[in-house]
Amino acid sequence: MEIIGYVASILIGISLGLIGGGGSILTVPVLVYLFHIEPVLATAYSLFIVGASSLVGAWPKYKQGFVNIKTVIIFGIPSIISVFATRKFLVPAIPSELGTFAGIIITKSLAMMMLFAVLMVAASFSMIRSSANKIALTEGEQKFNYPMILLEGALVGVLTGLVGAGGGFLIIPALVMLSKLPMKQAVGTSLLIIAAKSLIGFTGDLGHRTIDWTLLTIITTLAIAGIFIGDRLSKKIDGNKLKKGFGWFVLIMGLYIIAQQLFFPTTGGH
Fold first, then answer.
1. Host domain of residue 124
2. What is the mean pLDDT of the chain?
């Protein structure tokens, strides 16, 4: 299972390199189902893997002029504060058992995996639909809708903190609509925002959990290698068709996790 997990780690990076996002949505299921890491710890590991991979992915975009630093600061600051606070204070404060529903004991792990699965389903619809109706490119003077950007940044930070996903599928449309960024700039800018908030969010866990740095370094290195492969492939393959196919895959995975957690709620854990 671990060998499949290492191969899947490369695929996480490939999807990030190919379609500029979506890879993070696979990280938690890979850690939970293939490496048998307990879900709450898996969300912490995911923040580090996604953060490091996105940072590497953002560098070539920055060199090509596709990262808008002003937007990174305005969107990133509330996002970073909320993700750090969520990992440091909110996640440890959630009780290990939340109650029962329809005869099922709702544990902290079950609640986090269910929230994650719902997010996967939402992300899959955004990927499937974005191929059909692309977000309009907007050129010209950049105008910021400050209250909405600050609110969206904070909300994305809380979600990232809870489920350990980068939230690129939420950030990219927000940057296009609220910051009036062209699509290519929105993708590059979102990678840097994801990197900053994920890595800083991860530091909120350091006092609470024992981290297996060897495993984390291996998975992160494989994901980063995958980004370079994905970047090469993106020059040869139509990204929109890929994004739609990947969206269907994420939808099936999300529905599988919901069914698995409800009917066979046994998630492994070191």
1. 2-263
2. 83
